[in-house]
Amino acid sequence: MTIPATKYEPEPAPEPRAAPGVPRPRGIRGSRLRLAGLARPAAAARHHTRTTLAAWGLPLSVVDTAELIVGELATNAEQHAQGPLSLRLALCPGGVLLIGVRDPDPTPPAPPPTPAPASPDAESGRGLSIITTLTTAHGTTYSPTHKDVWATLPLP
């Protein structure tokens, strides 16, 4: 699937703030994409991730893994958040890729019941397991105006 470049334009990313437990990134590469108003924000986020990380020269294995993580985070935000979303990618010192999806709802979600294992033919229910398996850390950071759901991916 091709998403026309005229549908969205990445904005220059300000210096990203570090997620808890991640050293404050300085002198890194960053990219931010507003997903507001797009018919398929998760698809746009995956496309932006693939093209941006490839342009940064990251290995295909990292690009593929990051695209999967972004897909999980963006799809969850698309399904549960109200309002415009944005995606942030940042190369941090020490060989870490920081991935974040922001939504304007600062309210923490209600704690989910203990999940049952997803059935083999289920189309959902594996997102957190995928994120936990593929990343070194993940979490949610809250502010008075938004929340950031983030994950860190080690680079080879």
From TrEMBL:
<dbReference type="GO" id="GO:0004674">
    <property type="term" value="F:protein serine/threonine kinase activity"/>
</dbReference>
<keyword id="KW-0418">Kinase</keyword>
<dbReference type="GO" id="GO:0005524">
    <property type="term" value="F:ATP binding"/>
</dbReference>
<keyword id="KW-0723">Serine/threonine-protein kinase</keyword>
<feature type="region of interest" description="Disordered">
    <location>
        <begin position="100"/>
        <end position="127"/>
    </location>
</feature>
<feature type="compositionally biased region" description="Pro residues">
    <location>
        <begin position="106"/>
        <end position="118"/>
    </location>
</feature>
<dbReference type="Pfam" id="PF13581">
    <property type="entry name" value="HATPase_c_2"/>
</dbReference>
<feature type="domain" description="Histidine kinase/HSP90-like ATPase">
    <location>
        <begin position="42"/>
        <end position="152"/>
    </location>
</feature>
<feature type="region of interest" description="Disordered">
    <location>
        <begin position="1"/>
        <end position="28"/>
    </location>
</feature>
<dbReference type="InterPro" id="IPR036890">
    <property type="entry name" value="HATPase_C_sf"/>
</dbReference>
<protein>
    <submittedName>
        <fullName>ATP-binding protein</fullName>
    </submittedName>
</protein>
<keyword id="KW-0547">Nucleotide-binding</keyword>
<keyword id="KW-0067">ATP-binding</keyword>
<keyword id="KW-0808">Transferase</keyword>
<dbReference type="InterPro" id="IPR050267">
    <property type="entry name" value="Anti-sigma-factor_SerPK"/>
</dbReference>
<dbReference type="InterPro" id="IPR003594">
    <property type="entry name" value="HATPase_dom"/>
</dbReference>
